[in-house]
Amino acid sequence: MRRSLVWPSVWAALGFVILIGLGTWQVQRLHWKEGLIAARQAAFHMPPVPPPSNLAVAQTLEYHPVRASGHFLNDREMRVAAIADDGTAGFDIVTPFVLDDGKVLMVERGFVPTGLAAPDSRSAGEIAGPTQIAGPLRLDRGRPSWFTPDNQPARGEWYFIDLKAMAAAAALPADVLPYYIDADATPNPGGWPKGGQTAIELPNHHLSYAITWYALAAGLVQIYAIFVRRRLKERA
Description:
Blueprint: H1 6-44, H2 55-58, E1 65-72, E2 78-83, E3 89-99, E4 104-113, E5 131-138, H3 163-170, E6 176-182, H4 206-235
Parallel strand pairs: 4-6
Antiparallel strand pairs: 1-3, 1-5, 2-3, 3-4, 5-6
Helix pairs in contact: 1-4
């Protein structure tokens, strides 16, 4: 190989290895994401179980349906800023639920549009007295992204679920279980809040990313081949 081609060849080889590595990493991410979605779907369609008593058990039951009896503390509900699938701005209503054994379980009851933020605008849905709730178990994972604003408990402004902060803000009479429930799609009186908001599917673009990286690697090979041919012709 002529010396003038050594460094272009080195950089082309390095770029090719990096691009192939990135494509392979995306294939691995694809398989991981498919497995995660499959696990969520499998858990979501299992028969409901009673509320687990501790976090260790709850961690094995994420997205698994839970059914419980008790009553809502409607005067202590909290509103978490949310956007519906159709782009409507509103809130997810989170309400403490006192179980029959006295423990408190936070329930994300569902979505309401901004115009129905005030409880008295949807009073039919403020269920009083003994009732049952059902829905998938969710773990408190904190702030969903760096772009999510900080919660402002003193002002009643919530942007993500934080069980400890919510329990403190609501001055609950008992310890709160270390997980919460997304209410299922069973209609509430008056139609609001609208449950069944749990997202089971996840964004999965890893296949397109992998194809992109592999295509760039193939393009690099073609460019390098053209470059070498031209350089050899110049030297002929």
